[in-house]
């Protein structure tokens, strides 16, 4: 039971793939821009408010004095007013000495990290909120004493976060607009990139089945090799179709004559009452049937050679073994058999090719030599040269006229004076096989009568 043909798996859509990857790239870019804008907004808001926070702390520390061993603070409330310009925020401060004793302000403010420099900025939780603190330390001297004073000022982060959020919101709007523009450009680019494929598709879909002319539509560089491969494929298909049409026309023409002769002889046999005349008609029918059988076999052999020559499934072939097989298949099995002189080299004779085609070529030469070779012995030789393997088939027939030396390689062409019964395909088949294997064929007349056919194939070294 023949295996059911399976539908080819459909490949992913190029348009969908481009949209997927370019869209994912645009989304990734938008996400990175968003996080970058958020980080920038946060740092920009911190820088803006940190300047005010440090300025306030420095203003307070400038107001601290050491008088008669006692700390005095003339707190400049204007410095705190700068921070209170954000009405939603609260401000905290503390002034302490070098022993961390509170001089004024909130005594329970979170302590800074030990050993931190000055001014030192940090975040901490206080009074249930996230607060940004700055610590400024200064050494104060007087006529009678000296000491170190520390000023810590804090501000809740509401205004900072509101400023950062506003910057992120504006940046997000820009990101959305840029993303939409990039998606529009992606869509336009995908459409432009696929338009040549649509032109090729329309060109192919509008063609007649018999139109195998090359595609003329301009293709992008990435598709150029595909279009060239498609054109080469259509060229091979067109050549195969032309060969098939010519083969069918020639086969019909060649078979029409023996069929008409067989029909005429059969009609005569039916009308004849004389057994002798009837026998002559039957002999003629048998002769035409034999000729048509030979013609049909050579037509099938020619079709097989054409097909296998196009496929070119070559491998290493031992010509010595192939010559023996061809000789066994080509020589008639019934008596009388022709006399044979065989000379095969003992050296390796390897070539690269199709064993069936090469055997068919040698068989056709042997068959021609047996048919037209006269009464002398058939001579078959295989020799090896440094670069070539040489097969020689020689007979003692009439040879070939100089005018027919090239014409006999044409299909259905026969030399002048050729014996009846041939189809004119044998040497054409040999020529096609030799050309397909990169070899050469030479026909020459031998002294004393006869034809020498020489096949030369490139030698395959081990």
What does this entry look like structurally?
- There is one protein chain.
- The chain has 462 residues and is α+β, with helices and mostly antiparallel strands.
- It folds into three domains: 148 residues; 100 residues, Helix Hairpins, CATH 1.10.287.130; 150 residues, 2-Layer Sandwich (Heat Shock Protein 90).
- Helix content is 50%, strand content 20%.
- The protein is built from eight helices and 14 strands.
- It has a five-stranded antiparallel beta sheet. A five-stranded mixed beta sheet has the order 9-11-12-14-13, covered by helices on one side.
- A hairpin with a 3-residue loop joins strand 11 and strand 12.
- Helix 4 packs antiparallel against helix 5, helix 5 packs parallel to helix 8 and helix 6 packs across helix 7.
- The radius of gyration is 51 Å and the shape is rod-shaped.
- The N terminus is likely disordered.
Give keywords.
462 residues; Helix Hairpins; Heat Shock Protein 90; five-stranded antiparallel β-sheet; disordered N terminus
Topology:
Blueprint: H1 14-62, E1 64-67, E2 70-73, H2 77-83, E3 91-97, E4 102-105, E5 120-126, E6 129-141, E7 146-156, H3 158-205, H4 221-271, H5 275-311, E8 315-318, H6 319-330, E9 340-344, E10 350-353, H7 355-372, E11 378-384, E12 388-394, H8 426-436, E13 440-445, E14 451-458
Parallel strand pairs: 9-11
Antiparallel strand pairs: 1-2, 3-4, 3-7, 5-6, 6-7, 8-10, 11-12, 12-14, 13-14
